[in-house]
Amino acid sequence: MKPVGIFYGSTYGMTEKVAGQIKEAFGKSAEVDVYNLKNSTLEDMKKYDNLIFGTSAWGIGEMQDDWERFIDQFENFDFTGKKVALFGLGDQKEYPESFVDGLGTLYCRLPDKSVIVGEWPVEGYDYYFSLADIDGRFVGLVIDEHNQKNLTPQRIKKWVDQIKKEFN
Ligand SMILES: Cc1cc2nc3c(=O)[nH]c(=O)nc-3n(C[C@H](O)[C@H](O)[C@H](O)COP(=O)(O)O)c2cc1C
Ligand 1 pocket: which of 10, 91, 92, 93 to mutate (most atoms <8 Å of CB)? Predict the structure, then answer.
């Protein structure tokens, strides 16, 4: 597998923590670099053929703030030959009508959907509506550290095993 670049936006550090856990799940033999969007550029992303993007959910369908700086630039970003896997954090108990909407918005705003891998089953979560649920599948890994923290390690492990097969 080619090197992996994980890029995340995180306000209170929850997405940051999960990004670190995802890196660990790849194991020592894989080359995986983790970037906080706050301190990174599009040039950093260009280096990787395997990308993982992470965001939490805010406001009305909003991604974590740091994504705003990047997302408009994606129109000029060449995704040819790349694979992109997404993960999102949210709180299904407090926000059941907009659960992990940041993840859904990130997916919607990516110009080339054909490069996206790592979709995830909706079973095991309890919510009314989510922008990240498209035709009964989540567009990426969904993590709820508020209500299902105990499930996080096994979810990450299963998802990483899956995307290892889907990545370049
Ligand atoms: C003001 C506010 C709005 C939020 N809106 C949503 C939401 O619409 N949907 C959701 O699933 N979670 C929502 N959350 C929960 C966050 O996405 C969640 O706490 C996440 O783990 C934060 O991750 P971070 O610290 O990496 O930014 C909201 C939290 C706050 C404080």
Answer: 91
